[in-house]
From TrEMBL, chain A:
This is ABC transporter ATP-binding protein. The lineage of its organism: Bacteria, Pseudomonadati, Pseudomonadota, Alphaproteobacteria, Hyphomicrobiales. It is found in: Cell inner membrane. Belongs to the ABC transporter superfamily. It holds the Pfam family ABC_tran.
TrEMBL record, chain B:
NCBIfam families: oligo_HPY. One of its GO terms (biological process) is transmembrane transport. The keyword Transport applies. It is a peripheral membrane protein. SMART domains: AAA. InterPro entries: AAA+_ATPase, ABC_transp_ATP-bind, ABC_transporter-like_ATP-bd, ABC_transporter-like_CS, Oligopep_ABC_C, P-loop_NTPase. CDD domains: ABC_NikE_OppD_transporters. This is ATP-binding cassette domain-containing protein.
Length: 327, 328
């Protein structure tokens, strides 16, 4: 099956400082992919760059194709059809994504008119259907309300409705529940997986919360300092993480049941993009680092059919395994 | 068990809120009849969603705000009147850590100066002693004197929270209120600060009130956990037992909503409705409009917090000691 989106060697630099350093990622139709990492790891920048949403001074290079067509640096008229129409995006702070002085109807209808060429009664009916779909009670009447009349969870539902207005093939949700309370987070995540199932849409869920990503995605990519360091099916990643950073992240998560244990803290902090260490960016914080880690940045190499890891130790152990298998 | 260091009995606090410019003022009950006791050297975790009154409870316990009703006793004595010498002496023994370390620090002062400030204010030690104490505190939070010379802007989020912690520990307090101390930090940094807090608590035999919306972090650090909903405690019990066997329907939903790696969302309790509005508190049990198990009685009668077995207390008409324990 041809991938829906293919990202190859995507790099981004802001005034000469690299923040994204060669990201390769493939997304298939209808797939749910999780992107985890700490702040500054490049999870949001990857998609902002892919969709041409970064400010002009950002230097972007690499390839991003949507069903085989290059969209990186594509002309504005083509990007306008992609953004909102093929690929939609929702953000962490839904309240600031809506215009506070326009009714929900105006904002939803704007998106519908733009992407679906709907008019008159059909337009209104579709706006109402979308609000119904995302679970806003009394949708017909609530269309005339302003954003401040809704709660935080409801505003995020409205953002999802607007994102669905163009019937996208891919929805990118950038920390969609980070600003919401736990019980509301559960509602929004359930809504996202329901609409994804019903509409056969692909989903990229960007989050710093490993639990959120693990539960809602088929496949997870872990990012560190502008690179993907591990990519695996979510159950495998959490059962058996291969990259020391992924291991550290999972060990840093306090358990909710069973015996309490001391958290395995990753020492130090994320490196400053302007002073990136040579070789593996994680080596200065890695308990398993050896001298060779500082020489060259390891490439993201397959260790199994659907798993890729960027760590020289993983590569060495794979060679050892293969060596044993060959004998 | 040792006598409680902090004893909170039936505190309430309400604020007047106007709806619109000419609207009538209505009372918002932020905290409504909360009672807690924290034993020396123990940690009480306070969880709940925004607007549940957990931060207001923390501020009242610390004496930053007076309760409308009820009383807070610290080390057996009632809180002293604000701005008296007795109050100041008491306040030196209790400190607070906030969520946003950058907001809690002065951006224009080197951090070492800020760590020393409580010592200057309370007149503790000679200037040379204070310098030595600052170095000691920096070491305690795993930073170096070189970090002390920097300004908050030149430190990372985790380092800033360490500085706030060092400053809170400067007066050798017995009691620390931590209000969402790690919520703004990245996962790897969060675990560093949680471990540090656990170590320091054991070392200095601190008593903690730990406020957070993050159940995992609360369980990691607490002995006893109280769950708040709309200004009231709905369930309280020992940390491990509470999260393993939540009794109140709200606690059950909270625990179920906490995402866990390796567990798919099958069987998750997803609550209908929005987080409650403290200004429009439902009649009866405040949780009943969202409760999947609510009965008619829940809409009219406020359930009292009562013991259901062991050290567990639950405020729910549907949970009584005998029934649920048998059912489970």
């Amino acid at each position: 099956m041809a991938p829906l989106v293919n990202i190859a060697g995507l790099s981004v630099a802001f005034s000469g400082v690299p923040v994204l350093r060669g990201v390769d990622l493939t997304l298939h139709k209808g797939e749910a992919l999780g992107l985890v990492g700490e702040s500054g790891s490049g999870k949001s920048v990857t998609w902002l760059a892919a969709l041409g949403l970064l400010p002009r001074h950002a230097q972007v290079s690499g390839k991003v194709t949507l069903e085989g067509r290059e969209i990186l640096g594509a002309p504005a008229t083509e990007l306008d059809r992609v953004r909102g129409g093929r690929i939609a995006m929702i953000f962490q702070d839904p309240a600031s994504s809506l215009n506070p002085v326009l009714t929900i109807r105006r904002q939803l209808c704007e998106a519908l008119a733009l992407h679906r060429n709907l008019q008159g009664i059909a337009l209104k009916a579709e706006a109402r259907r979308l609000l119904d779909l995302v679970g806003i009670p009394d949708a017909g009447r609530r269309l005339d309300a302003y954003p401040h009349e809704f709660s935080g969870g409801q505003v995020q539902r409205i953002m999802i409705a607007m994102a669905l207005a163009g019937n996208p093939d891919l929805l990118i949700a950038d920390e969609p529940t980070t600003a919401l309370d736990a019980t509301i987070q559960a509602q929004i995540l359930e809504l996202l997986s329901t609409v994804r199932r019903e509409l056969g849409m692909a989903l990229v869920l960007i989050s710093h919360d490993l639990g959120v990503v693990a539960e809602n995605c088929d496949r997870v990519a872990v990012m560190y300092a502008g690179r993907i360091v591990e990519e695996a099916p979510s159950n495998q990643l959490f059962a058996d993480p291969a990259h020391p950073y992924a291991q550290g992240l999972i060990g840093a998560l306090p358990p909710l049941d069973g015996p309490r244990r001391r958290l395995t803290a990753i020492p130090g902090t994320v490196p400053d993009p302007a002073k990136m260490p040579g070789g593996c960016a994680f080596a200065p914080r890695c308990a398993l680092a050896s001298e060779s880690c500082g020489l060259a940045a390891p490439s993201l190499a397959p260790i199994a059919d659907d798993r890729r890891v960027a760590c020289i130790r993983a590569e060495a152990s794979r060679r050892a395994l293969l060596g044993i298998a060959a004998e | 068990m040792s006598p409680p260091l902090v004893e909170v009995s039936a505190i309430s606090r309400s604020y007047a809120m106007r709806s619109g410019m000419f609207g009538r003022a209505t009372a918002v009950h932020a905290v409504d009849g909360v009672s807690l006791a924290i034993a020396k050297g123990q940690t009480l975790g306070l969880v709940g969603e925004s607007g549940s009154g957990k931060s207001t409870t923390g501020r009242i316990v610390l004496g930053l705000e007076p309760p409308d009703r009820g009383e807070v006793r610290f080390d057996g004595k009632p809180m002293a009147m604000p701005a008296t010498a007795a109050w100041r002496a008491q306040r030196a023994r209790m400190q607070m850590i906030f969520q946003d370390p950058l907001g809690a620090l002065d951006r224009r002062l080197p951090v070492a100066t800020q760590i020393r400030e409580p010592l200057d204010i309370h007149g503790i030690g000679t200037p040379a002693d204070r310098e030595e104490r600052v170095r000691e505190l920096l070491r305690a939070v795993e930073l170096t004197p070189a970090h002390g010379a920097r300004y908050p802007g030149a430190l990372s989020g985790g380092q800033r929270q360490r500085i706030v912690l060092a400053r809170a520990l400067a007066t050798k307090p017995d009691f620390l209120v931590c209000d969402e101390p790690v919520s703004a930090l990245d996962v790897s940094i969060q675990s560093q600060v949680v471990n540090l807090l656990c170590d320091l608590q054991a070392e200095l035999s601190l008593t903690l009130l730990f406020i957070s919306h993050d159940l995992r972090v609360v369980r990691q650090i607490s002995n006893v956990v109280a769950v708040m909903y709309l200004g009231r405690i709905v369930e309280i019990g020992s940390a491990d037992d509470l999260f393993a066997r939540p009794e109140h329907p709200y606690t059950q939903a909270l625990v179920s909503a906490s995402p866990a790696p390796g567990r798919r969302s099958a069987g998750r309790i997803v609550l209908a409705g929005d987080p409650p509005n403290p200004a429009a508190r439902p009649q009866g049990c405040a949780f009943h409009p969202r409760c999947p198990r609510a009965i008619a009685r829940c809409a009219s009668e406020v359930p009292a917090l009562s013991v259901v077995g062991g050290d567990r207390q639950v405020a729910c008409h549907l949970v009584t000691g005998a029934q649920t324990r048998d059912a489970a």
